[in-house]
Automatic annotation (TrEMBL):
Similarity annotation: Belongs to the Clp1 family. Clp1 subfamily.
GO CC, any one term: mRNA cleavage factor complex
Residue sites binding ATP per the record: 15, 54, 116-121
Annotated source species: Lunasporangiospora selenospora
Domain Clp1 C-terminal: 317-440
Residues spanning the membrane: none
Physiological role: Required for endonucleolytic cleavage during polyadenylation-dependent pre-mRNA 3'-end formation.
Cross-referenced InterPro entries: Clp1, Clp1/Grc3, Clp1_C, Clp1_C_sf, Clp1_N, Clp1_N_sf, CLP1_P, P-loop_NTPase
Residue ranges of domain Clp1 P-loop in the record: 113-311
Protein name: Polynucleotide 5'-hydroxyl-kinase GRC3
Length: 441
């Protein structure tokens, strides 16, 4: 790493915007004053290390920062929408105070907008500000392309109790070595693809399941109930995107929609959804939000997968290698199977579509480098016929125990070697195959 260091003096309400390549490492230190990264405050005189990130260091009251290392972009901006973001938080906080007094549900906020307008960054800020008020909000991540919490291809809900980590984002706060019964364990459903468009029906089923689970959590957990939920979405805003948004609003009983950086979407949301008890708010996109090309996104996804098995430079993990017999596991994927004809279904049964049909996958060379999701489901489909349909729906709606990575295939011996974060035999037998592949470097 280059030792070149540079001092930055920021006036109040300014932000230092930096972009760091994946190959570079940059250290950031707050010397005087106060500053925050997407809502999380920096401690003074501590080195924070970043690689492959685009971020903003914002100060409300002015500060002095030192950057050590090579950034690809670095500049100070004095025009930001941070005041409007803070005001939005304060309005939501008023609702939380009311919710605490009356013991009712706090705000259920949905953040929508096109790609690269800062939805995830705004979610982090609103969550951080809420956590700073000693509340315990739930973060729902419906953006399956990114995998802020665990892996790409997942839909997750995470009750947050600790501040979001400056260097690792949700990666650390939500999943670092949770103790038994820890409140920071995310609830994860596997969708298996980076775009909701690939299988809208499956995506909506999983959103409904996630919403039911979150609803149960809110009933039991008073702190989470009054703190409310923040839902981050993908950037789909065409007609399919509108249907998905409508489904999310219904499933999570959303009462605040924040539309980020898109006038037409805002006016459509007002027209389609504004009704008593549901507010639609428009916020401006920050000039600092960076458009990420597909290569950058792919790199981020790979990094996320790698971190799952090997940890980060701050907390390294050593994955375990296990040999698995083909016949010991049931590998399934959702969709694209051959359908039973409608007349073959029992009278009154809902017809399964090809989008939600379970298909058994025969293990083989094609699985090499796949990331498979280990389901908490116990029984393979078809074993409890005659009600096979219900079984399939239950199977799809099961949450996940974790992930494995297929590192070697020994087809002649009908075995495969998989990496997993835990030692020993993998107790769960139903594994989902999605489109996630990763070539270990
Ligand atoms: N003010 C800012 N200054 C510098 N970088 C920023 C700023 N706000 C956000 N970014 C960066 O811009 C990128 C895009 O932001 P973000 O992920 O929040 O957008 P998004 O709308 O959630 O994107 P998508 O839905 O397409 O995944 C991220 O790398 C983020 O760290």
């Amino acid at each position: 790493m280059t030792t070149e260091s540079k001092e930055w003096l920021l006036d109040e309400e300014n932000e230092l915007r930096i972009e760091i390549d994946f190959e570079a490492k940059v250290k950031l230190r707050l010397v005087t004053g106060t500053a925050e990264v997407f809502g999380t405050e920096l401690a003074q005189n501590i080195d924070y290390e970043f690689s492959g990130r685009k971020l903003a260091v914002f100060t409300w009251h002015g500060c002095k920062l030192i950057l050590q290392g090579q950034c690809s972009v670095e500049y100070i901006a004095n025009e930001t929408p941070m005041i409007s973001y803070l005001n939005t938080h304060l309005a939501l906080e008023q609702r939380r105070v009311l919710a605490s007094q009356k013991n009712i549900q706090g705000p259920r906020v949905l953040i929508v907008g096109p790609n690269d307008v800062g939805k995830t960054s705004l979610s982090k800020m609103l969550l951080s500000y809420t956590l700073r008020q000693s509340r315990q909000p739930i973060y729902v991540d419906l953006d399956c392309s990114e995998g802020s919490i665990t892996m790409p291809g997942c839909l997750t809900a995470t009750p947050l109790t600790e501040m979001i980590d400056v260097e690792e984002g949700f990666g650390s706060s939500a999943t670092s070595a949770p103790t038994a019964g820890s409140a920071v364990m995310p609830l994860v459903y596997y969708y298996g693809s980076p775009s909701p468009k690939d299988n809208v029906k499956l995506y909506n089923i999983l959103v409904s399941r996630l919403a039911q689970s979150v609803g149960r959590r809110l009933e039991e957990d008073e702190a989470a109930r009054t703190s409310g939920i923040i839902i981050d979405t993908n950037g789909l805003i065409d007609s399919t995107g509108y249907d998905i948004i409508a489904h999310c609003i219904k499933s999570f009983s959303v009462d605040v929609i924040i539309v980020l950086g898109h006038e037409r979407l805002y006016s459509d949301m007002v027209r389609l959804h504004q009704k008593p008890g549901l507010s639609v708010v428009k916020l401006a996109k920050s000039g600092g939000v960076v458009e990420r090309d597909s290569a950058f996104r792919r790199h981020t996804q790979n990094q996320k997968i790698k971190e799952y098995f090997y940890g980060t430079s701050k907390s390294e993990l050593a994955p375990y290698s296990t040999m698995v017999n083909y016949h010991d596991v049931e590998i399934l994927r959702v969709g694209d199977g051959n359908l039973a004809p409608t007349w073959a279904l029992p009278i009154g049964e809902e017809r399964l579509t090809s989008e939600t049909q379970l298909v058994k996958v025969d293990p083989g060379d094609h699985l090499l480098h796949s990331v498979l999701a280990v389901s908490n489901a116990e029984k393979p489909p078809g074993t409890t016929a005659p009600d096979g349909l219900t079984t399939e729906k239950e199977m799809i709606g099961n949450n996940l125990a974790g992930f494995v990575y297929v590192s070697e295939i020994h087809d002649a011996r009908k075995k495969m070697t998989v990496l997993s974060p835990c030692p020993g035999r993998i107790p769960k037998k139903v594994w989902w195959l999605g489109s996630l592949k990763w070539a270990e470097e």
